[in-house]
Amino acid sequence: MASTVLITGASQGIGRETALLFARNGYNVVLAARNAERLEAFAQELQTYAHRAIAVPTDVRDPQQVKHLVERAIAEYGSVDVLINNAGIYTSGPAECYSLEDWHSVLDLNLWGYIHTIHELLPHFTSRGSGTIVNLSSIGGRVPTPYLVPYATSKFAVTGLTKSLASELAPKGITVCGIYPSLIKSNFMERALFKGKDEEDQQARRQQLEQVLSAPVIEKPADVAQAIWDAVQHKRTDVLVGSANLSLLSNRLFPDFVQWVMRKTFKNKDRAATS
Questions:
Q1: Of the listed 77, 90, 114, 151, which one is catalytic?
Q2: 151 labelled catalytic
């Protein structure tokens, strides 16, 4: 009997590449994302190659939609073996420029979206005495990053959620893994949130990130998908992807210098940040 993986944010980027990899390795795939049209087209693509896949349009910020997602997955395949929490939003800008609505937009998706899926699937995993939860965090959830404060807050929270769950659930046969990539060359820019002192500042931040993403050394979604696959197969609980290893090491060895460089790099029109 084939194992089943449920992936959020599955219609593009890391989620799409991860779904392709698991499907090619014989998994049933449950695809979740907000864009129903794009999601269904991807499911049809997988089915064309004889992969078993269903699309369940889901906004993971809504616990009732998540409940329906899990119920549909179990009804279709009998069980879920792996949960991959991937849906999220990137944001950049001075902390004082974010409204409370902006904060909720980031935390509701990046943190509560993960909590909702875990909450629904955990009884299923504990009753079976097995299961794997993979949470896509970020190096921004391990290294403090100025001008990414709401994003970093959500990712540090995901890191704490992941590590605490891993400790508690290991004796129950459930593996919980955190994946920590750096910037990835994907299409997350289409839903990213940029704030600034003015419109020019916002645009400069967007252009700056686009320029960074154009560098040939930036990792790709397939690199993260492979890291996720390896983590699931080998029951790893902590995986840094590519250049994230260097970022973490640099911050451990030279924290003050690294923070100074990042402030200088990302401050843009926030001229008050002179040190």
A1: 151
A2: yes
